[in-house]
Amino acid sequence: MLRTESEPDPVNSALFLLPFLGLFELGMPLSSQGNSLLIPDRELFPGMFSAIFLGILLIQWFCQSSSTEMARSFFSFNRNSLTRQWKESLWFGVAPALPVLFFGSVLLSKVVNANTPLQLREDAMLPMTACYAQIGKSDTGMIADKLYQAVSAGLVEEFLFRLLLLSGLLGLLLGLKISRPVSLCLSVLLSSGLFALAHDPHLIAQISSLNFDSATIQSLGLFGYRFCAGIYLAALYLRRGLGVAVGTHIVYNLTLSCAF
What we know:
The chain is mainly α and 260 residues long. It has one domain. It is built from ten helices and no strands. The longest helix is centred in the middle third of the chain and has 35 residues, at 79-113. It is globular and about 55 Å long.
């Protein structure tokens, strides 16, 4: 049976996320200094992001669980759950990346054959973390750079848009006595829209100026693509848990970055 958001499993999710958090913390000193998604223009102290991440995960679990459920699951170490999260992260990450790579290569070949270069900005295809915080811009080599950027994007973006924003919106709407299906739908759509917009904040200015040139149209296409990706990750977060959502995000980014 699929696990839903009403059956939190923070212990095994946290254990699954520990290696990724460790890579994130180890790579932080090598990344650009003085930048943070959480505190602009401030450097994160070692371990601060991981403590905040795990702390909010536990707070969410505390708010959603009864004392009996907490006592039962706090001391439960389920190796099968960890294995499941690894397998599902690989499957849910690689499966959507393959058609994206296929259609992307077809589109790129048509653009090249038509001698019509893409007119996107240099940062248009970067993860949000690379655009704003310059996370992963280290001198440790291309492979390490791609690995760190994929891990940081998966952790930070899932932390912001699923663990904080989606859960917060859902709790707020439910607190306003809005029905659960409507609350879920609105929370997923709004968090996915903000997730897509955060990758390309210049899109609002382009649309408001009524400048619908080819670059704006291409940016709108990327917005739609990321909006669908946000819905996909939100569904995984709600149905499979935070660990699988983060793992899927990381695997997906790694698959695409290795291909290009």
